[in-house]
Amino acid sequence: MINPYLTIPQIQTSLKKGDFSCQDLTSFYLDRIKSLDPKIKAFITITPKVALDKAKEIDQKIKDKKLLGKLAGSTMAVKDIYLTKGIETTAASQVLKGYIPQYSSTVYQRLVDEDAILLGKTNTDTFAFGASTENSGFFTTKNPYDTSLIPGGSSGGSAAAQSAGLCTFSLGTDTGGSIRQPSSLCGISGIKPTYSRNSRYGIAAMASSFDCPGAFAHSAKDLSIVTSVMAGNDPHDATSSKEVVPDYSSLLENKNLKGLKIGLPKQYFTGSIDPEVKKNVLKAAKTLEENGAQLVGVSLPSTDLGIAVYYVLMPCEVSSNMARYDGLRFGQSKKDIKDLLSYYLETRGDYMESELKRRIIIGTYFLSAGYFDAYYLKASKVRTIIKKEFQDVLSHVDLLLTPTSPTPAWKIGEKVNDPLKMYLADVYTVCTNVAGLPAIALPTSPSKTNLPIGFQLIGNYFKEADLFSVAHQYQSLTNHHLIHPKL
Amino acid sequence: MNITPIIGLEIHIQLNTKTKAFCSCSTDYFKSPPNTYTCPACLGLPGALPVPNRQIIKKGILFALSVNATIQKETHFDRKNYFYPDLPKGYQISQFYKPLIKDGLVKITVNEQEKEVRIAEAHLEEDAAKSIHQRGHTLVDFNKAGIPLLEIVSEPDIASSKEAKIYAQKIQQLVRYLDISDANIEEGSMRVEPTVNLKIKDNKKTYYTPLVEVKNIASLSAAAAAIDYEIERQTDEFRKTKQEKNPKNKTTRGWDMDTKKTFLQREKEGSADYRYFPEPDIPHFSISDDFIDSLQKTLPELPDAKMARYQKELTLSIYDSSLLVEDKDLALSFEKALGEKPQKDFAKFTANLFLGVIKKHLNETQETIDIKRIKEKDFTYLFSATQNGDISSTVAKDVILEVYKTKKDPQSIIKTKGLSQISDTKELEKLAQQIIKDNPKAVEDCKKNPNSIGFLIGQLMKLSKGSANPQLAQEILKKLLG
Amino acid sequence: MTKPLLSSDKIDHVAKLARIKLTPQEKKDFSRQISDVLSYMDRLNKVDTENTSPTFQVTTKPLSPQDLRTDKPGKSLTSKDALSTASQTQDDYLLSPQTVKK
Question: In 3D, which of B121, B42, B120, B118 has the Cα closest to residue B86?
């Protein structure tokens, strides 16, 4: 019996020792998915052949004593908005159902090149539009801690798979909190790096100036290993950063907790926050304080504008990014409609899910004649203010510690008919995206009802190494990340 | 009614880069099999992103410099959103809020008068795919999708179809000199779209007719014809309806080559709602003065400057100068033939050969000049041979054409064809006696009227295949006829 | 009850611009939901941005033209791959509904 929650270094040690082969490991996960996923519903597509072929290739490398990739033996689940050449990619939408991409996303390819093994493609809110996976065009993923609850979203499929021990690590994207919020609700670790740190090429775009590919794992250390492979400039993404990517996993002890200044922004601990969430998040801060860190109360006065800025700019970008989905070059389409306008209206009207339509309509409205200045430009200016507040605060403290979600996971169906309420679930995560800062989400003590609660550390631009280091030390001091759902 | 046409021109030129504007696909689309130069980016596949080509910015700046325009150093791209099967992403990457180029000026000459046409702005954008319309459906080829375009928008400073044509020719000439575009209208690498309306003064009141943008124009003469048609149509329309321009009644009309008429394509709902916003996938720019200076240094001598120099330094006429600079390669070939610091006589001689022979030949054969076939030494040789009286200027013209066509040197052409001028008196006397013998009637005439000697000289020239020195021939004939 | 900021006409117009057919139910729901969202967005108008320049890109530094891609052709897809996911094709062309009446 293999422990499904093995970390990347543990797998590599076992492979070296010959405890199991890559094929054994891969088959183990595939079997586990087969038995547990019908309950969790994390996967849209499972790729046993791809997985086993890759595992066989790695086993052969081990046998031939060839150089192994940095992720050799690590199994991965990939959010179904990452394009995977030759493997169906749906964005969890009827729009793309059946689409077999002609090319692969850069970060996915980088992981495969380092011998990561793809197990399958995971569920998400359609095109990543949501915070619960309830907006998936196919089905809702269940929270492994309680299948009557949502796993969070949009990267809920990957988070649930991770939490349920169905993979070594998984990929998500974080546009307004879509990695950190499900991390928090599923009790796992997740990284949203600095905007532009990871290439966006080959990932169905939601909101271009916010989208951040990132990962989930069982530990901050695993996240640091995976991020070192994913990150870096990509000639196919003109906005991807040319900053050098350090080997994050070799820097895990670098940031000394002694004297570390951690800011607690007061706006993140007021309002509609669940008292237990507040208490447990502050408990995490306390742990760091007890180990030498200095907690500093700080203020980010424009925090409550974050949602407004995000929900203006994001739909604008969405409305334009979604224009390519017309069913002509790819995706599902209405046949036998002769009139071009009717063809567009019917194809896009019939295959697009409600949330998709809603955001496109909102964005189109904001951008349409006469509203650009009032909405897009205004929100872009407030974006500057939010960014500046973060920069000011981060010039005084090393990083910020905040809750990730105001509440633990909620019931499936609870907020689905109230988009605004759903949008407000992003309240603690969204400002980081507005500013483009990196953040890592980690579990703290669970609730009395044993539901995961999470917090996030927000760092300065391109200071992922600091985040991994502090997170790793926190996880060395605590065992919240070692709690797993009973399945 | 006093009618003044108000015409502005939008000119699209395809920039002659090797790769598309935002991806590495080749631009060699013309006559290539369909859909052979595409990639995720120019097909608008999910997740694909644009990566701008540095040459498009360079070429744009060169144009800006050539028309003394303002270069907006903090320029960026915007998305122009609309749906069409030839627009794969559902938006065109273009420039709206901060185009690269603003406020330029082009000087044109109309009826020997200089006139200025202001350029409002010029911006970079990507071309759409090619559509082939068939009964019931449309075929789309994405090879052309993403080819870089520079759209040059003039102010409505143009008042006639003639001015419009001259302005468009001027732009075409400029971009070819700058080597930023082939600017071939027939092949679609240059497109001209006039916007026309009329200012009408009637009973001391002034009216403006609704704006009409004309599309589907495949040549400069078609542009002129479409403008003339619109002037007439709008005049009639105004007489009938008295309708005036308002912000919502601009229309787009197509030019029908067969009927020589424009037809309504679409009525605009106000100004079309393109929902422009800054393209988030492409970083904004910061263009340094150093970069602009370095491009300024590479700027070639432009037609206006060249023309002025030909007139001043080579003392050529305005007319000859303008013909020589019309085509950049012709001008460069001409300058190659002249060599450095040419004498004025030699320049005049060479200009005559270019305009009288070479350009004529090129026009007849529809070829462009091959500069490799132009050698300074051929021209200097012919010039001195003419000066020495070794050959006539007529022969020089024939020889240079032969040199150009066959790549042989002029010496051997003159030799093998026996074109050397006969200045040998004995030789000429022999020919003259033959002529006198063969033309008794003409000889009689000549004795009565010495002015009719021309005929005999002509006969002699003919007999010598043009190689007789005409002056000497006349002297000898006169002598022999007593 | 919030005042509907988005009339039915406006929704129709925007939906047509976006090329999306809406069901009557969607139209009704969206009208209310979008109005809610719009009222929420109103708080932006209370922010003084007189002297603030907009941020369009958060971390990306402005580029100099020298930093851009060199003009060297790379590999393209084959026409077969390019059209492998197309809804309809004919002779290596993509087939679309008629765009210009012929």
Answer: B42
Domain ranges of chain A: 8-263+396-482
Say which of A178, A196, A228, A241 is annotated catalytic. A178
Backbone angles phi, psi at C40, to 5 degrees: -60, -40
Instruction: Report the amino acid identity of residue A166.
Output: L
Within its chain, how far is the Cα of B133 from the centroid?
30
Q: How many Å apart are CA A84 and CA A1, to the nearest integer?
A: 31
Residue pair A22/A73 in contact by the 8 Å Cβ criterion: yes
| Residue of C14, C93, C101 to mutate for B, most B C-beta atoms under 10 A | C93
- Give tens-digit pLDDT for B306-347: 999 999 999 999 999 999 999 999 999 999 999 998 999 999
Top-level class of domain C8-44: mainly alpha
Which of A209, A323, A344 is closest, CB to CB, to B89? A323
Other C-beta atoms closer than 10 Å to the C-beta of A324 total 23
Give the domain ranges of chain B: 2-291, 301-416, 425-481
Contact indicator for B115, B99 with CB cutoff of 8 Å = no
Residue B147, SS3 per DSSP = coil
> Which two three-digit tokens encode residue B386?
């003419």
What CATH number has the domain spanning A8-263+396-482? 3.90.1300.10
CA distance A40 to A123: 10
Report the DSSP beta bridge partners of residue A203. A82
Architecture of domain B425-481: Orthogonal Bundle (1.10)
pLDDT digits (tens, 9 = 90+) for B345-370: 999 999 999 999 999 999 999 898 99
Give the residue extent of every domain in chain C: 8-44
Q: Is A79 a catalytic residue?
A: yes
ipTM for this prediction: 0.96
Instruction: Scan for tokens 């897809």, then name that residue.
Output: C77
